[in-house]
Amino acid sequence: MADPEFARLIEALRERVAARPDDIRGQRLLAENEALLGNLAAARAAQERVVALAGEAATAADHAALARASVAAAGGVVTHEAEAALARALALDNTDDTALFLAGFGEMQVGRPDRAFRYWRRLVE
Q1: Residue 120: predicted pLDDT
Q2: What is the dihedral of CA 42, 47, 53, 54, to 10 degrees?
Q3: How far, in Å, are 35, 105, 117, 123 from residue 29 at the CA level?
Q4: What's the rounded Cα separation, in Å, for the pair 80 and 17?
Q5: Distance from C-alpha of 29 to C-alpha of 13, rounded to nearest angstrom
Q6: Long-range contact pairs involving 10-19 (C-beta distance under 8 Å, separation at least 24)
Q7: Exposed, middle or buried: residue 26 (CB in 10 Å: 0-12, 13-18, 19+)?
C-alpha cells in the first residue's frame, strides 16, 4: 500500500495528465510512477503516449521504456508490440542496455539462445 501522501500526489498527477494529455513530461512521470505502483497496463499506456507525443524525436530510451512496460504488462512475455519497440530502440542506439537485454530475453523465450547471446554479449562488452 502506498503512503497516503504519495497516493494523493499520484491521483493529482493522473488528474493533471487527463486534463493535459499532450503534456509529455506529465506522461513520463505517470508512466514511471504507475510502474512503481504495479499498475502495469496504465504504465504501458502512458509510455505509449510519450512515444506518440515525441514522434520522430522519440529516443532509443523512450522506445526501450515502452518495450519494458509492454513486457511487464504482459507478465514477462516479449510481445510483438515489445519487439517492435525494441527494433526501433536498437535502430536509434544499438548500445541501449535495456533494449539489448530485452531483445535477448525475447530470443530466449522463442528458444534461440544463439541469437540471445549476440545481444547479451554486446552488454558485457
Answers
A1: 96
A2: 170
A3: 10, 26, 33, 27
A4: 27
A5: 8
A6: 10/37, 17/46
A7: buried
Higher pLDDT, 2 or 10: 10
Q: Residue 109 is placed in which grid cell?
A: 523465450
List the grid coordinates of 18.
Answer: 487527463
What does pTM read for this prediction?
A: 0.91
2 grid coordinates? 502506498
The per-residue pLDDT of the chain, averaged, comes to 95
What would the grid cell of residue 75 be?
A: 507478465
Q: Residue 30 is which amino acid?
A: L
3, 37 Cβ separation under 8 angstroms: no
Q: What is the 3-state secondary structure (H, E, C) of the chain?
A: CCCHHHHHHHHHHHHHHHHCCCCHHHHHHHHHHHHHHCCHHHHHHHHHHHHHHHHHHCCHHHHHHHHHHHHHHCCCCCCHHHHHHHHHHHHHCCCCHHHHHHHHHHHHHCCCHHHHHHHHHHHHC
